[in-house]
Amino acid sequence: MPRNSTRPNASAAKAQAAPSPQRAVRELAYVEVASSELTRDINRDLVLEYIRSAQPISRVDLARKSGLQPSTVSSIVEQLKEERWVKEGATVKTARGRRPTQISLNDDLLILVADVRPTQAVLAVVDLNGHFLSRLVTPLPTDPASSVKILAEGMNRLRAEHPGKVFEGVGLSVPGRVDPKTNRLVLVPNLKWKDYDIGGKLAEALGLGVELENDANACLLSELWFGHVDGLRNVVLIAISEGVGAAVLAEGRLVGGRDGLAGEFGHICVDTSGPRCECGKNGCWEMFASSRAALRYYAELEPRAGKLTMQELIGLAVNKDKSALAALERQSEQIGKGLRMITAALSPEVILFAGDITTFWEFSHAIIERECRAGLLAGDGPRLLSIGDGELALLRGAAAVVLQRHSGYYRSAHGRKPRD
């Protein structure tokens, strides 16, 4: 599917699909070295990507852009029409010859998505172009069975708002790590959902396939999908909210690691005498750099202030409250210090930031950069960029996960059955 999301290796697809794609790094970032029987699926996903990025587009232009034979393109387009990914539109008048039909993504095919947090979930309906058609925020209890029931009720409510549309599936962005083989949570310190089959239970309730993905990975998928990191092969995304998550693009490949556990920098110990983390260990980076850490810093300075939310703390800082500013400054310093291990280990070109940190980026950016640069081994270090509205990125990323995992290439490579 057009998931500029998980294309890990460009070289094999270049040889088998297109001699010289115009945006090779982004467009082919998720194509692994494939055996010849997967070539058609790779080509299919390549064609779909060109449709997404250049729509409306004719078969002739698809063949020219992709480097594939016109007969191959035509066959793939027919397959995509049967699978409901694309639709034909108007014809275009030309100087001579047959009028070409324009191909676009099917805006009647929708995806249900959710950004799941420890206390609430943001639900939405997204189309194949990443446009948001509906949105709903709902509180979540700690009990996973009750939470799944609430998620299903909310999604059914959103689905009812779009009669006549087809829903491809459900994507969940979650604050934990997901085993790609089982689609189940294997590490989720800030939610008590590890031993519960959220995806399976929600699929039963909705009658749709459900895909789970770590929130940081979902954000990076979104950035890859919409081309915000074009031309980059080494990127780390840090998601900072209740916890600290990370996603890694290394040499054009999205790194999952064994059982999908790669990228847990938030649970690396930086101070053995530090506070106890939800993972059971003391002094994790998360305990110094997360939103919860900032709230703790403020409570230490203002013990009589009562319990605040992160949004309330940021509001105080905007109004020049000295203790709030000091708490955010301390958090920013700890974020920057933690980045030193990331730059030393991975040497990324860019580090992207998502989550609560983006709402006070103008204040925190210089502090984070100063602390990060203080630990550089050599060179100028990575660029540090905020992706802006992290919530939208998480929801778009959840949609990208569905598109990726329902693609021909992914299904062939992972032994999944085609959808009905």
Automatic annotation (TrEMBL):
Keyword Ribonucleoprotein: no
Annotated segments matching region Disordered: 1-20
Protein name: Sugar kinase of the NBD/HSP70 family, may contain an N-terminal HTH domain
Keywords: Kinase, Transferase
InterPro entries: ATPase_NBD, ROK, ROK_cs, WH-like_DNA-bd_sf, WH_DNA-bd_sf
Record family assignment: Belongs to the ROK (NagC/XylR) family.
Compositionally biased residues, Low complexity: 10-20
GO MF term set: kinase activity
Keyword flag Kinase: yes
